[in-house]
# Entry
Amino acid sequence: MFRLTVLAAFMIAIGCLPASAQDKAKEWCTNAHMQQMTSQIGKMTDAAKKKEAKSHLAMSKAAMKAKDMAGCVKHMEQAHQAMGL
Ligand SMILES: [Cu+2]
# Structure
C-alpha cells in the first residue's frame, strides 16, 4: 500500500511537468546519468565552475531522491550550464 502511494505520487509529479521536462527527467534523473555527470565534472579544469557544477549536481541528486523531478531537471540544467553544455 505504501509503495503504491509513493508510485502514485511519483506518477503525479511526472505528469505535472511539461512534455519536454518529462523527457529530460527520464534522461537526466537516473543513477546512470548522475554517475556520468560526476565523472565529467571530475575532468573539469575551471575550479570555480567545477564547484558550481558539483553543488548543482548535489541538489539535482537530492531532488531526484525526493521524487522532485521538476527540481531535478532544474538543477541539472544549471549543472550543465556551469559545465558549459
Ligand atoms: Cu546532467
